[in-house]
Amino acid sequence: MATGRPRAVVLALAAASAIAVLSASAISDVYTEAQRPPQTFLTHTGAVITTTGEVLDPVYQVSEVEFDPDEYLRNFEYGSISEDSKTGQTVREYVIVAEDDRVQEVAPGVFYNVWTFNGTVPGPTIRATEGDLVRITFVNNGTKPHTMHFHGIHPAIMDGVFEPVGGGGGQFTYEFEAGPVGVHPYHCHIMPLEEHIIHGLYGVFIVDPKEGRAPADEMVMVLNGFDTDFDAENNFYAANTVPFYYQHHPIQIERDRLIRVYVVNMVEFDPINNFHLHGNLFYYYPTGTDRSTSFYTDMITMSQTERGIMEFTYEHTGKFLFHAHKVEFSEKGWVGVFLVKDPGPGDDGDYGGDSSVDNGDDNGDDNGDGYAATGGYSGAAGGSTRDVTGPAAAYDGREAPDGA
Amino acid sequence: MTDGRRPMAHERGRGLSGRGSSGAGRFRVVASGAAPLALVAILVIYVSGPGSTMLEVGVPLPEVTIERVDFVGSEILATVRNTGPIPVSIAVADVNDRIHPAAVEPDAHLERYETAVVRIPFDWNVAEPYTIGITTDDGTRFEREVESAAPALSPSGELVAFFAVIGTYVGVIPVLIGLLWLPFIRRMGRQVYVFFLAVTVGLLFFLALDSVEEAVDVSQENLAGSFNGLMLLATSVVVSFLGLFYAGERLSGSRGPGDGGRAGEGDGRTGSGNGASPRLAGPMAIALMISIGIGLHNFGEGLAIGAAVGLGSVAFSSFLIVGFAIHNVTEGVAIAAPLSRERVAVWKLAGLGVLAGAPAIFGGWVGGFAYSPIASVVFLGVGAGAIFQVMVVLVRWIGRGGSPANGSNGRGASGGSGLSGAPFAAGIVVGMLIMYVTSILV
Ligand SMILES: [Cu+2]
Asked: Which of A55, A313, B228, B383 is deepest in the core (most CB within 10 A)?
C-alpha cells in the first residue's frame, strides 16, 4: 500500500477544503450588483438619510399603483339615467363586473390578489336620489360565486345573500328603490364572507335626499386594510386602499368652503377603526340618515361597516393631518393630509404639491444632527428615563472584567 | 450482500482490462466513474433548466431570514438573506409592526441566498426589546425579535482589548491554572493516574456534548431551515473526527518508513506496541491533540460569547465570567493528566495551555465583529469532532495501560488499571459530574 501517504494527504485536503468552503460561504455575503449613485430620503421625523441602495418609502416615493385614490376620492357614478314612462320614476342603470384574478400593487412594491367590482378596490361609488329605481346588471367574471349585497331597504330576493351568482359570466339583475337617505356600503355576501370582503369586494352607495344637500366639496373615504400574508391581521391600512397615499398627495381643499366626506369603515379583523381630524372639528351624521346632528367633534369611532357623513369648513390655510387615532393603523398607512388653500386660482405655487409632511423644520434639524453624529446617541435621545438607566446598567457589567 | 459483491467483480474486470491495454482501461475507469455524474447533470438541466415547466407542481413560497439586527447610531440595520426557493424583492420595513421609511443596500431584489442590509432610521432605546419586520413583494411579512437593543460593536481598539481580556479570563488563565495540578497527579500511583486520565475522558465527553448542544441552539435560533443546520453540524462533526483521526494515525506511524506506519498502528490496536521508540503517539502528542481539540471548542465558545455580546442577548456580568473560568479550569486538568509521567519543559506546558485557551480570544473577536451563525455551527461541530477524536485516542491509551512502554500488557490485563477497572469508570463519572456542576455556574 504505497499509496497510503498521498491518499492521507488528499483526504486531509478534502476535509480541510470542505470546512473552508462551508465557513467561507457562511461569512462572505453575496452582493451581485454594483452600487448605485447615492439618493436621499426623509424619515417620519424629518431626518435626511443618504443611501447608495434602494429607498423603501411608502410615504415619499411617488407611488405607481394601479388604483388612483385621487380619482376615486371625488368620483360618483350616477348611472345611465332614464325615466319610467308609466310612473315617472327616475331609473339609474349600472353594469358591475366582478373579477377575482387580478394582482394589483396595493402598496408600493407589494402585490396582492384583489377581488374587484369593476376592476378596483373599492368598487365604484354608486349614487342615486331617494326614490330612484336602481337597476344593476351584475356580471360575475370571476372563478368563484359572488353577489352584491346592499345595506339599505329592499326586497329579500335583492339582498344578495341567498342567490349566489356563479363565476365565468353568471348574471343577476339587482333592482330596488334607493333608500333610505344616507351613505351605505355594498359588498359581496358569499361565504366565507370575510374572505370575500377582505379581498376587496366592497364599495359605497350614496342616497341623496330629494331636496339635495347644501353645495359642498364632496369626497368619499373608504377606510380599509389588507391582510397580505393571511395571518388574520391587517398588514396595511388606508383611507382609499393605498397606504400613506394622501400623506404624500395631500387632498387640496379651499378655505371657508364646506367639505363633505362620506366615510365608510370596511376594515376587518380589528373591531374598531377611527377618524381624527387636525385643526378643526366636524359635524357628524351617523349613517347620514338624519338631517341634523348634535355630534360636533374631531374624533369618531366606527365598527365594521359603520359609516357616516362628516361636514366641516377650515378657517385656516395650511396642512392638516387626518388619521386613525388608533396609531397602529396610522403607522401602517391610514393617514393623510388636507392642504387648505385660499380660494381662487393661482395659489398652487405657495404649496407646490410637494411631498413633505407637516413636521416643523426645527424637529427635522434636531434629528438630522443626531444622524450626522454616529456616536451621538446619548445626545440625541436624552429625554427618556429609560435611556438613562439602560446603558448604565449594561456598561457596568461590561466593564467589570477590566476592573476586576 | 449482492451490493458488496458487485464492486469486487468490477475491480476484477478492471484488473483484467488493465493487463490488456492500460491506456484504454484507464479511460474506461474514468468514463464509468464520470458517466453517472454526467447523467445527473443532464437530469438537473432537463428538470430545472430554463423553459422546463414539466415538474412545476405546487406554489413555491418566498422566504427571507433576518440573520442579524444591529443598532447603530440612530439606525437599526437588519441583514436579510433570501433563504427561499425563489427570488424576492423587499418592499416594506417595519419596527415593532409599524412601517418606517428605509433603505436597502445594495438593492431590494434578492436572488436565492443573496443578502442585503435594510437600514431603518429609528431612535431606538437601549435595553428595550424590538421586533424588526420585513415584508416582501408578495405581502408576506418576516420578523426577528431582539430581546434587548444594545449598541452594535465595531472593531475599535477598546473592544478588541475587551474581548482579549474576556478571552484571557475565560480561556487562557483557567487552563493554565488547571495545568498546575500536574505535580499533584504526578505523585499519585498508577491507579490514580488512570483515574485522572478517565476524568479527562469524562470532561472531554461533556465538552463535546456541550459543543453539540450549543451548535443545535445556534442552528435553531439563527439559521434558516434551508441551511439544514443539524445536518451541517453532523457533517462538521464527522468530517473533523475522521480527518483528525486519520491525521493522528498517520502522525503516530510517521517514524516507521512507508508501510511500517501501518503495521505499527495495527500493533498498537492489538496492544503489542511497537517497542519503546519515542513516537509522536506518546503523552506529549496526546496532550497536544487534547489542546487542539479544546482550542477548537474554546474558539466556538468565544464565538458564542462574542455573538451574544454583539447581538445584545447577554449582558456580560462578572458572575458569568467567573462561571466560565471555573468551568474551564477543568480543561487544564485534561491536558495535564496524560503528561504526568513525563518530564515536560515549562514552556511547552504553557504553550499547550495557550493553544487550548487563546482561541477563546479569537472566537470573541470573530463572533463580536463578524458574527455568522453558519460559521458558529461549523466551528462548534469541528470542535466536537476534534474532542471525540481525542477521547478515542485517550481511551485506547488507557486500554494499553496508560503508557506506550507498558503496551504489551494489553487491555485491562494489569489488574483493573485498564478499561474494565473501577478507576476508569469512576473517572469518567467524576469528570462528567465536575463539568456538570461547574456548568451550572455559567
Ligand atoms: Cu364574493
From this structure: B383
Q: Establish whether this prediction's ipTM goes over 0.85.
A: no
Segment B24-54, tens digit of pLDDT: 778 888 888 888 888 888 877 776 666 655 5
A264-293 pLDDT per residue, tens: 999 999 999 999 999 999 999 999 999 888
Let me know if residue B392 belongs to a domain: yes
Based on the domain organization, do B433 and B336 belong to the same domain? yes
Looking at the structure, do residues B292 and B200 belong to the same domain, yes or no?
yes
Contacts of A390 in chain B (CB under 8 A): 125-128
Domains of chain A plus CATH, in order, are 50-360 (2.60.40.420)
Highest-pLDDT range among A373-382, A393-402, B224-233? B224-233
**Residue B139 shares a structural domain with residue B260:** no
Contacts of A1 in chain B (CB under 8 A): 259, 262
> Are residues B29 and B71 located together in one domain of the fold?
no
Query: Taking CB atoms and an 8 Å limit, are B113 and A30 in contact across chains?
Result: yes
Q: What letter does residue B72 receive in the DSSP assignment?
A: E
Identify which of A53, A59, A381 has the shortest CB distance to residue B101. Answer: A59
* Beta bridge partners of residue A146, listed in sequence order: A165
For residues B106 and B113, what is the distance between their CA atoms, to the nearest angstrom? 14
DSSP B28-51: HHHHHHHHHHHHHHHHHHHHHSTT
A371 and B103 within 8 Å at the Cβ level: the answer is no
Q: What total number of domains does chain B contain?
A: 3
Residues in chain A: 404
Interface test with B, best of A54, A242, A269 (most B CBs within 10 A): A54
Residue A151: its pLDDT value, please? Answer: 95
Say if B262 is an interface residue toward chain A (CB within 8 Å).
Answer: yes
Tell whether B57 is covered by a domain: no
Q: Is residue B115 part of a domain?
A: yes
Q: Answer yes or no: is B58 within a domain.
A: no
Q: Are residues B307 and B383 in the same domain?
A: yes
Domain with B98, as residue range(s), is 64-146
Cβ-defined contact of A55 to B242 (cutoff 8 Å): no
Q: 3-state secondary structure string, chain A?
A: CCCHHHHHHHHHHHHHHHHHHHHHHHHCCCCCCCCCCCEEEECCCCCEEEECCEEECCCCCCCCCCCCHHHHHCCCECCEEEECCCCCCEEEEEEEEEEEEEEEEEECCEEEEEEEECCECCCCCEEEECCCEEEEEEEECCCCCECCEECCCCCHHHCCCCCCECCCCEEEEEEEECCCCEEEEEECCCCCHHHHHHCCCEEEEEEECCCCCCCCEEEEEEEEEECCCCCCCCCEEEECCCCCHHHHCCEEEECCCCEEEEEEECCCCCCCEEEEECCCCEEEEECCCCCCCCEEECEEEECCCCEEEEEECCCCCEEEEEECCCHHHHCCCCEEEEEEECCCCCCHHHHCCCCCCCCCHHHHHHHHHHHHCCCCHHHHCCCCHHHHHHHHHHHHHHHHHHHC
| Coil, helix or strand at residue B345 | coil
| Domain shared by B104 and B177, yes or no | no
Span B109-144, pLDDT tens digits: 998 889 999 999 999 998 889 999 999 999 999 999
Q: How far is the CA of B269 from the centre of ligand 1 (A)?
A: 77
pTM of the model: 0.71
Pick the residue of A5, A56, A270 with the most B CBs within 10 A to test the interface with B by mutation. A56
Partner-chain contact B243 A11, CB within 8 Å: yes
Task: Please say which residue of B91, B119, B146 terminates a domain.
Answer: B146
Task: Identify which of B128, B247, B309 has the shortest CB distance to residue A12.
Answer: B247
Cell numbers of B124, please?
431606538
Which residues are A80's β-sheet partners?
A93
Residue for grid cell 435595553: B127
